[in-house]
Structures
1.
Amino acid sequence: MKGQRLWPSSLPIFLFTVLTSLTFECSAEFDSLLQLPLSRLNTTRPRSKGIFYLGDFGAKGDGISNDTQALMEAWKVACSFPTRARIVFPASNTFLVHPLELHGPCRSRVTLRIHGIINAPKDPNAWAGLNPRKWLYFCGVNHLTLEGGGEINGMGYEWWMSSCKINSTNPCRHAPTAITFHKCKNVKIHHLLVIDSQQMHVAFTNCLRVVASNLKVIAPAFSPNTDGIHISASRGVMVKNSIISTGDDCVSIVGNSSRILIKDIACGPGHGISIGSLGKQNTSAQVRNVRVDGAVLSNTKNGARIKTWQWLCH
Ligand SMILES: *[C@@H]1O[C@H](CO)[C@@H](O)[C@H](O)[C@H]1NC(C)=O
Ligand SMILES: *[C@@H]1O[C@H](CO)[C@@H](O)[C@H](O)[C@H]1NC(C)=O
Ligand SMILES: *[C@@H]1O[C@H](CO)[C@@H](O)[C@H](O)[C@H]1NC(C)=O
Ligand SMILES: *[C@@H]1O[C@H](CO)[C@@H](O)[C@H](O)[C@H]1NC(C)=O
Ligand SMILES: *[C@@H]1O[C@H](CO)[C@@H](O)[C@H](O)[C@H]1NC(C)=O
């Protein structure tokens, strides 16, 4: 499809089914309520209450030093702060962040204000011994916001080149999702550039009430499986005013998701907007109440589609 407005008003897709209750746990212990003594903060500069600069936790922000520990410590403090907390990534800095998990529950709302750049390690070996599907992983957080006009860069090139979809002599393996929100509620992610993810860019799994807006999600058309926004087992997700141009689906929606609104997005190049694949290995899966309203798809492999697995016969 080239540059044509697909749906003048809207395309509601309703699949009615029974939604069963969801019980998933975060994969590690909640540690955020461990109090980090505030005396460890650098107080030589005056700081507003509840605003935490990554540099005050030892981050160098030079794009070369490992800033992972600084982010983990900033998270511990912000997440146990009694009122709204903001972690600031200044515009002039590039932070190198290795795979990490940031867990809730937090005492109050937490915002990551990303004005600068967050880079992943280029080398897939940085994941040795770690879960290859995760880079920035948020779990069990209520009222979490990512914003700030900055950039999150998955540095995915080496992952793509080692994919079996690029070169069939490579073994097939999983690659990280750049940003995952798992079991989070009231998530906002807006005004960010998310580029070159190792695999999927932004995923919401088992989340409730999400708004993703004013995002630019960009990766080359040849990059394998680099879905823009992936929604799984989540309810009440709005994706709006965003530009998504990757090597796979702009938005993909899989099992047990409902009340999904995709509004005013530009999609392409990419594979389009997909529900599924649903029902792998004879399982049943339900997706219901999906609305796409105001999407411009250009240079996409498909428009909007539903993908299902076939029944297996004996
Ligand atoms: C605290 O911040 C100031 C100003 O940025 C810096 O010069 C100083 O080295 C920092 N101190 C510590 C202990 O990090
Ligand atoms: C970077 O820091 C994290 C957290 O301290 C650590 O787990 C990781 O091994 C470090 N990576 C390298 C390459 O130094
Ligand atoms: C695919 O990978 C193999 C083994 O690493 C390499 O020899 C070959 O040149 C690669 N092919 C392409 C087209 O890059
Ligand atoms: C959907 O829910 C069913 C029943 O709880 C579960 O077996 C299945 O794994 C879920 N699917 C997804 C994609 O979460
Ligand atoms: C898959 O489900 C269908 C319909 O219930 C059934 O006929 C078929 O035998 C099942 N196949 C397997 C391999 O379980």
2.
Amino acid sequence: MTQTPDVRSSATSSTASNYRDIVSRIKAQEQRFGRDAGSVLLLAVSKTHGADKVREAYAAGARQFGENYVQEALDKIALLAQPPDALTDISWHFIGPIQSNKTRDIAGAFDWVHSVDRLKIAQRLNDQRPADLPALNICVQVNLSNEDSKSGVALSEAAALCASIATLPRLQLRGLMAIPAPCRDHDQQRAAFQPLAALFAQLQQQYPTMDTLSIGMSDDFDAAIAEGSTMIRIGTAIFGARG
Ligand SMILES: *Cc1c(COP(=O)(O)O)cnc(C)c1O
């Protein structure tokens, strides 16, 4: 028999070693900015990447995964739940724009939703959350004047949306999420996050369940950690460029 190159194991090492690299960069940034060790969680954004890549990141310790597209995510979640190699301790986070005809699928398959930006969607998720599952963890997505993005509630309206969500019994209000306009400068990145961090601190006084500031992606997570991020969402720097 001729030996074929083992593509699978080289792919394993790059996803897994990228994941470990980001974990150690998070540790370094926690120290640099005086954050508690372990206070920043890493969400591996696996959108457009297959179940095999999820397994590779899982092998390196990843347990939190983020997805943007409902049908792609449902297929992947089902595949990874199949015996004999079922991965049973993954938390799935929905982080993409939400159409109202997709809320039932999201409420049934995910543990978290980071992209709630209107009450109608929150109400549907609440009504459709299956009774045998715990309350669905929710972050309100805020639009930090990112002209490119139509997603997110205005900063000035975020507190009111949080107040409504806090009354819905099948949802657990956990925090705020934002995607600022891309920019390269560290200080400008920090400045963009600041109004959100201030609102987060204020809302935490009101809602004891609020513990998650979901900010920071591949190009701005240092700045996000400096501004108090508790969950960074990394795709490209773990899985490589999306095709
Ligand atoms: C795709 C995506 C990410 C990951 O972005 P990268 O730049 O690939 O790290 C994070 N958050 C959201 C909401 C996304 O849609």
